[in-house]
Write a structure and sequence with these properties.
It is a single chain. This protein has one domain: Alkaline Phosphatase, subunit A (3-Layer(aba) Sandwich). The chain contains 12 helices and 18 strands. The longest helix has 27 residues.
């Protein structure tokens, strides 16, 4: 079999339930591929997540804990030319990226090695219209006549259809349903004009959860208390934001369908299509809005793999965990390429083709800090039905996700044996995050 083409499709701030409002994507990807019900963003914030996607490493190695400042941003990333694109290019692939890259990237930086086609929105990555695009030769253009998601899909299609015999890797990086910049201020996502009036009565699923505007937060970390007190919003406020978010995803949904339809059936079958998001999003759960928190809505992301010629089953949903940090190893595995850095992730291809049981493996979860002068806000593990988290100021959280899926009752201090087991897992995983290496292997 010829080397597969590989298309990585990312959305920004999407929850796993947002997929329900993307019917074309469900028909073309989920119906013909495998969905990971436990898709997890192991560092649920844009910049660190994207650093993971291009390196296969945790923040301990990428030096990207947050989006900007001393502990974040593209400037902090070491060895910028030693990333996924360069490894694939060395294996004979032509490579392209259209859309948002990493937080902190600007035209002032050299275009990193490995990219044959570079169409990166900087500045203006968060604008619906009027964004600037940097090219592989360092030149730039301002795009005023295309909606951002339509433009990303157009560029991905043009790249896939180029007359070049080499297999291709394309990263189509959409910004929806992230909030967008309007006249220099952050606003709800701006949909394409043709979608502006859809879903007029849709209600946010979050508003129906027991954790929505949770009343008793005394068991949650103290450093979030002030934010919680100031963040009680009415259902209608969240409903309005939710409608804007799913409206903005309609152009992405159309674009994904156009991308698949733009190539021949043979090319479509022998292409590894991967859809995910850099993090999830809270919409009022625990009185919170946003990401970079250890709660399930922040961690869970959509994750679908389609590759018919590669043996990925069609129409399957697996309960096995698929981590964002596993995606580079998965791509390298499919391409037969070699990583230039030790990989913390492992290939998802054997899992997608194999058993569907969740084997209860311990998964490292981490979040960078906006709250103090240090890199970490929290570190923890998610293992089967349990989640254990240590916060920077010393507080701990322990949840039984089977009996308490909405994380209402913090059991820290009440299950000492379980807590000790999970703490040992955390100490082991956080200590080895910097040293993991070797070929892509399935999680066992």
């Amino acid at each position: 079999m010829a080397e597969p083409n590989i298309v990585l499709i990312t959305v920004d701030d999407a929850t796993d339930t947002d997929l329900e409002y993307m019917p074309r994507t469900l028909r073309r990807l989920k119906r013909w591929g495998t969905e990971f019900r436990n898709g997890l963003a192991t560092h649920p914030l844009c910049g660190p997540a994207r650093a993971q996607l291009i390196t296969g490493q945790y923040a301990q190695d990428t030096n990207v804990w947050v989006n900007k400042g001393r502990f974040g941003g593209y400037d902090n990333l070491p060895d910028k030319d030693n990333t996924l694109a360069a490894w694939l290019q060395a294996a004979g692939y032509r490579t392209g990226l259209a859309g948002k890259f990493m937080n902190g990237y600007s035209q002032e930086f050299p275009v990193p090695a490995g990219w044959d086609r570079w169409r990166v929105t900087a500045p203006g990555a968060y604008k619906a219209f009027g964004f600037t695009v940097v090219r592989e030769d360092g030149s730039s253009d301002r795009i005023t006549d295309r909606y951002t998601a339509d433009w990303v899909a157009d560029r991905a299609i043009a790249f896939a259809r180029a007359a070049d015999p080499r297999p291709f890797f394309m990263w189509a990086s959409f910004v929806a349903p992230h909030n967008m910049l309007v006249n220099g201020r952050w606003k709800a996502p701006v949909p394409a004009p043709r979608h502006a009036n859809l879903f007029p009565d849709e209600e946010a699923p979050s508003t129906r959860k027991p954790s929505f505007n949770e009343t008793d937060l005394t068991d949650k970390p103290d450093y979030l208390e002030e934010r919680w007190e100031d963040n009680v919003k009415e259902r209608q406020s969240y409903n309005a934001l939710f409608r804007a978010r799913i409206r903005s995803l309609q152009a992405v949904d159309e674009g994904i369908a156009r991308m698949l339809d733009s190539v021949s059936p043979q090319v479509r079958r022998n292409t590894l299509w991967i859809l995910t998001s850099d993090n999830g999003f809270l919409l009022g759960e625990h009185r919170m809005q946003g990401k970079n928190f250890p709660y399930e809505e922040s961690l869970h992301v959509p994750l679908i793999l389609r590759w018919q010629a590669g043996g990925i089953p069609t129409g399957v949903t697996t309960d096995r965990v698929g981590r964002l940090i596993d995606i580079p190893a998965t791509i390298l595995d499919a391409a037969g390429a070699t990583a230039g850095r030790p990989q913390a992730g492992q290939s998802l291809l054997p899992i997608a083709k194999g058993p569907t049981d969740d084997l209860g493996e311990a998964v490292l979860i981490q979040g960078g800090s906006f709250f103090h002068d240090g890199p970490w806000a929290f570190q923890g593990v998610r293992k089967g039905r349990w989640k254990y988290v240590e916060h920077w100021q010393g507080q701990r959280e322990l949840y039984d996700l089977t009996n308490d899926p909405f994380e209402l009752a913090n059991l820290a201090g009440r299950r000492p044996a379980r807590e000790a087991e999970l703490k040992a897992d955390l100490d082991r995983l956080s200590a080895t995050a910097q040293t993991s290496a070797g070929p892509a292997q399935p999680l066992m």
